[in-house]
Amino acid sequence: MIKHYALLSVFDKTGIEDFSMKLIAAGYTIISTGGTGKRLTQSHIPFVPIEQITGNPESFDGRMKTISFQVESGILFDRAKRTHQKEAKRFHIVPIDVVVCNLYPFEQTVAKRGVTLPHAIENIDVGGPTMIRAGAKNFRFVLVVVDPADYAKVSEMLQKKHMDVDQRQEFAAKAFSHLSLYDAQVARFLNKETFPGELTIPLRKHKTLRYGDNPDQSAVWYVEPGVDATISHLELRAGRNLSATNMTDIDAGIKSVRLFGTPAAVVIKHNSPCGIGLGNTAHRALSLALASDSESAFGGVVVMNVPMTARAAGVLADFKDEGRGMMDIVAVPDITGEALAVLTRVRKSTGVYVFGNMTAHSPNKRLVRWVDGGMIIQNENNPEESFKTWKVVTEVKPTKRQLSQMKIIWKAIARIRSNTVAVMDSTLPIVRGIGAGQTSRVLSTKIALERAGKYARGGILASDSFFPFDDSVSLAAKAGIVAIVQQGGSVRDQASIDAANASGITMVFTGQRVFWH
User: Fold this and answer.
1) What positions carry a catalytic annotation?
2) Whether the Cβ atoms of residue 327 and residue 244 lie closer than 8 Å to each other
3) With a threshold of 0.70, does the pTM exceed it?
4) Phi, psi of 452 (to 5 degrees)
5) 69: Cα separation from own chain's centroid
6) Are 209-214+231-354 and 389-509 in the same CATH fold?
7) Mean pLDDT throughout 66-72?
8) Mean pLDDT, rounded, for 27-42
9) Which 3 state secondary structure label does DSSP give 101?
10) How distant is the alpha carbon of residue 507 from its chain centre?
């Protein structure tokens, strides 16, 4: 009678005793490595030590345990080929029909603060991936299990004595995905190049979303292991679950408000701010953000860099009572119980989320944009980097107040969809008008000035790139703009400078473009 063997070698020993007993009950003889074997011994579960299969002891501080001709042959040989069967018999190969393996905790190891390279290297698994890969390749005859969460499902299948090749193929696919995720994290840790010749981005399924951009689209949220992103800590406190649009709007909001060291609030519509406000309190910042463009704020997403207070929640209640609309999503670092009660009274379906402490910068410091058949990866820009090299190019010099307002609006437009032209209030930390996403910079200017209305007079105008002609400067002058901040660098810069000088406008060149696509 042919014996059936199951090889167990797991770092995460969750549920391994019970699963071992199920395997034995299904007719398998257990083969186990040292650490797993100790756990089985404690529960009085019989097994064959791996040394009896390999003919060699575990050695080199555990670096050599399972890698051997006997083990890999027992997993890999093709049971359907008579030549393989004869060779297995001739070489005394034990047929291993089930491989249960999970790997050294490399992800958890490198996530620890101050981890050293030698310590990280010792947590790179070699034998485990070899067994998993062998089992997954030979899935027609071998079942490979890498996730303790699958033990119950596999036990049920074994009890029914039914597991077809399609089911084994599903487990094989999961095994290869698991290996790819693992190896990608090792490569990321060891690689010092910003843009290596070959790149694999590890992603783990985090949550199924309510829907994608539209209700007829399915969507799933994946996260990059080991990257402590603010958005990955989102926790629902009340209201609706997230759609893909909600997610990208919250992300856009986080990217905007994290640029400011004082309380800041933004209202996001279609991945771009339509209202931005700063203040010394949460309610003041939110009041200004809503006042920035109360018409566009309807049905928007509110994101703040400070906790939501009851008084700030009252601002949203007043906004609704004035007939100007309601918010779909509110995402903040934290929220008081009183504030949550206010928001749920305002609108039960509004999704209220908290995300904890906000990181100052994107933790992975790169942006990914999908294109057909691949993606573009770039580093994230920092609008503050150009502050020290700004250049006044007009006869009229900016005041300290104007320079301060220019810095606020420059950071703001760096996270608004290009082409962007925006108008900043003359004194208050509020963006009064935004013209974004237009193919014409003149049209962006017209929209920004129109949205700003009376607040354009005495205000500051910013452009995320240069003005290739003097037409936008002339429009700004007619609207009463007194200061302009822009990239500069056009071959027609002088025309814009002359137009500014003719109208008594002060203008600063940043030397930096801040497109955000």
Assistant:
1) 137, 270
2) no
3) yes
4) -70, -35
5) 42
6) yes
7) 92
8) 93
9) strand
10) 38
